[in-house]
Amino acid sequence: MIANQVWEEASKLAANPKVARRIASLRQAVETAVTEQRAWDRVRLLDVAEEKLPQAIRDSKLAAANGTLRLIAKAAGLLEGQPQAPMQASKVTAVLSSREDSEHSS
């Protein structure tokens, strides 16, 4: 078969309602798997970033802390790139001064 014949036969097959339903089902399964993987990757990325942020601040590695914050903001769609899949926040990290820090500044 030449290339044109292959495309013609594929087109005929795809026009069959049973084949079309199966193709749609397979496409949906792949889209779902990719979306779930991206969501898991994003959650894992944010977990690691949130874990590293306090450590970077504590060690006075402000460039690393800023980079981590930028990464979190970008993943959340707060910067120029929007997330590719909807995201729901499940954990928020707040960095607070310790009581000792506030006593030393008084």
Largest sheet: none
Strand content: under 5%
Shape: rod-shaped
Low-pLDDT windows of residues: none
Coarse structural class: mainly alpha
Overall radius of gyration: 24 Å
The end-to-end distance, rounded to whole angstroms, is 85 Å
In which range does the helix fraction lie? over 70%
Number of helices: 4
Mean pLDDT: 75
Series of H and E elements = HHHH
Total count of strands: 0
What descriptors fit this protein?
mainly alpha
What secondary-structure arrangement, pairings included, does this model have?
Blueprint: H1 3-15, H2 17-58, H3 62-75, H4 99-105
Give the gist of this structure.
The protein is built from 4 helices and no strands. It is mainly α.
Walk me through what this model shows.
The chain has 106 residues and is mainly alpha-helical. It has four helices and no strands. The protein has helices at residues 3-15, 17-58, 62-75, 99-105. Helix 2 runs antiparallel to helix 3 (62-75). The mean pLDDT is 75.
